From TrEMBL:
GO molecular function terms noted in the UniProt entry: ATP binding; hydrolase activity; RNA binding; RNA helicase activity
Domain Helicase ATP-binding as annotated: residue spans: 82-240
First and last residue of the signal peptide: none
Record SMART domains: DEXDc, HELICc
Residue stretches of biased makeup (Basic and acidic residues): 13-22
Name of the protein described by the UniProt record: RNA helicase
Species whose genome carries this gene: Spirodela intermedia (Intermediate duckweed)
Catalytic activity field: ATP + H2O = ADP + phosphate + H(+)
Length: 586
């Protein structure tokens, strides 16, 4: 919980220094890049060189401060919030993730406390706060507190953040009730009560507590409660971020860790704590964050991730909501979450404050049904992609390796020449072939494997079967194959799925059996088998009951496909925004 107790301070000379620092902090704390519309809003406001007549001079000064970029452009966007909060109305506010809901209540509340009916006059008293903000996790409490602190101080108000050392985070609203009952907290002076991530609090069964203490409810995902609800930045009813490319990629559990890319700040979500720990254990430099990690450690991990000490955070839903971390370019969800709200919040950890981002949802090809459900309910149109073939990746990386070789100093030649001559005379390969191998080695490849389009499994190839007539079930396709493929080879057939039009089936076979299947069609009439370049749209299959949230095991070697074998970015992590052209679109 955050309890913000605010009072007007007498201005002293030393405050000017504090204000300068605050302004600096605001400037430094801003996102690395702001979107066009964030900037346009700011320019419009700055161009007018005047603030709002409704606001106090300190708030106008803050909003017009060129360093306080967040505040200035924010005002125009959240004007309805200002009006309602200054009027003392109850408010239910909803906007997509990363749109700035926090400032949408922080700034008007602060303004209200130095202006109008809620003007603070009394002495600062930690036991009698003026504002109480409840949030589901301590990490979020710290984050929102820092906005109150920075903006409050800049306009001459001070704030504090209190939370019980031993309290379980999810008990936070209950804890407030405890305080009230034990008379360690007096809420009589309270002027604002805010419930952030309100739907989550309600889901956790805090309805009574909420009725007791809340007047402002905010979240990207809220049930519809009627007309008082304010769509803060446009008409946005529980929709996923529009600044994010939402991609889905079929991938079996075993193939997942081969696909996780290197570079760039990434959050990977798993369904279980065990999966998060296991995956973090096999990804170099990754760290896990979940409910079993002790609180103090959680804060250390998050601070280190924010500061860039490590780049891959593997988390459960504890990191799904609210966290605002600069420059997270990629979100990977290892399987479809149970509810659409989780999808919206998780994917919303990127694409914030007008920046763009990529969210990739991995799913078992057999259960594509879950994808359609999330697509329908979140309002996103998923781009369906398949994992790139290692050969394509190798080609790109190979040309970078070639550039790198041209830049190597001639001083190395005398040292390596005799070994090169020996290789040329003994290997039986041409000079060009040997050079090709050297490039492969420099690019991190020792062999090139095939990768299934259907399941992303290495060393499997997806084949497409047509029989010149509709197929009514996968077993129909399977029986057709059995007519001309020996039993021992049929044992290698995986994931038979019908195409959406019902006229073909796709399935995986081990790479070494591909020729046999292609040649086998000669012995069967009306049968065509080919290697598709792209995966066609498939019919959906229901996931059996209880199938969600299973415990994934992430064994094997992540780098088995060679360096760059994943689907994302390389080269310092700059290219995550659009996937760097490495995704295979379907
Ligand atoms: N006008 C603005 N200009 C630039 N950045 C802004 C502006 N308003 C807010 N921001 C920044 O946008 C980011 C996202 O804001 P915030 O965390 O409040 O989003 P949110 O809508 O609450 O998201 P979520 O639903 O995920 O909690 C923050 O870094 C915030 O400082």
């Amino acid at each position: 919980m955050i309890i913000v107790s605010v009072k007007e301070k007498k201005r002293k000379a030393s405050d000017d220094e504090g204000d300068k620092k605050s302004a600096q902090k605001i400037a430094n704390g801003g996102p690395a890049a702001v979107s066009t519309d964030f900037c346009e809003e700011k320019e419009k406001l700055m161009g007018r060189k005047r603030g709002s007549p409704h606001l106090t001079a300190p708030m106008n000064k803050l909003l017009l401060d060129p360093n306080a970029s967040k505040g200035s452009s924010h005002y125009r966007r959240s004007r309805p919030c200002f009006d309602l909060i200054l009027d003392g109305s109850d408010l239910v506010g909803r906007a997509r993730t990363g749109q700035g809901k926090t400032l949408a209540f922080v700034l008007p509340i602060l303004e209200s406390l130095i202006n109008g009916q809620n003007k603070e006059s009394g002495k600062m008293d930690m036991e009698k706060p003026s504002v109480l903000v409840l949030l589901p996790t301590r990490e979020l409490a710290n984050q929102v507190y820092s906005d109150f602190e920075v903006y409050g101080r800049a306009i001459g108000l001070s704030a504090c953040c209190l939370y019980g050392g031993s309290l379980t985070l999810l008990e936070t609203p209950g804890r407030v009730k405890d305080h009230i009952e034990r008379k360690t907290l007096d809420l009589k002076a309270l002027k604002f009560r805010v419930l952030d991530e309100a739907d989550e609090m309600l889901n956790m069964g805090f309805v009574d507590d909420v009725e007791l203490i809340s007047t402002l409810l905010f979240s990207a995902t809220l049930p519809e409660w009627g007309e008082e609800e304010l769509q803060i930045f446009g008409n946005e009813k529980m929709k996923a971020s529009a600044n994010v490319r939402h991609l889905v990629l079929p991938c079996t559990r075993v193939a997942r860790n081969q696909l996780i890319p290197d570079g760039g700040r990434t959050i990977i979500f798993t369904e279980t704590k065990d999966s998060a720990s296991e995956l973090a254990g096999v990804l170099p430099g990754a760290r896990a964050l979940h409910g079993d990690v002790v609180q103090a450690q959680r804060e250390v991990i998050l601070a280190a991730f924010r500061s860039g000490s490590f780049l891959v955070l593997v988390a459960t839903n504890v990191a799904a909501r609210g966290l605002d971390i600069n420059d997270v370019q990629l979100i990977i969800q290892c399987e479809p979450p149970r509810d659409v709200e989780a999808y919206i919040h998780r994917s919303g950890r990127t694409g914030r404050a007008g920046n763009s981002g990529v969210a990739i949802l991995l799913y078992e090809p057999r259960y594509s049904h879950n994808i359609s459900r999330i697509e329908r309910e979140s309002g996103v149109k998923f781009e369906r992609i398949s994992a790139p073939q290692p050969a394509e990746v190798a080609e790109t990386v190979g040309s970078e390796a070639a550039d790198a070789i041209s830049n190597i100093s001639d001083s190395v030649i005398p040292i390596f020449r005799s070994r090169a001559e020996q290789l040329l005379s003994t290997s039986g390969l041409s000079a060009v072939d040997i050079l090709a191998k050297a490039l492969a080695k420099a690019a991190g490849f020792t062999d090139i494997r095939k990768r299934s389009l259907l399941s992303s499994k290495d060393n499997y190839v997806t084949l497409l079967l047509r029989m010149g007539k509709p197929m009514f079930s996968p077993s129909f396709a399977y029986s057709a194959l059995r007519r001309f493929i020996p039993d021992e080879k049929m044992a290698g057939v995986r994931d038979v799925s019908l195409t959406a039009d019902g006229m073909a089936a796709v399935f995986d076979v081990p790479d070494e059996d591909v020729e046999l299947f292609i040649a086998g069609q000669e012995n069967a009439s009306m049968v065509e088998i080919e290697i598709p370049k792209e995966l066609p749209p498939l019919q959906e299959k229901e996931q059996p009951r209880g199938g969600f949230g299973g415990r994934g095991r992430f064994g094997g070697n992540r780098f088995s496909g060679g360096k760059g074998g994943g689907f994302g970015r390389r080269g310092g992590g700059g290219g995550g925004g659009s996937g760097g052209g490495r995704f295979n679109r379907r």
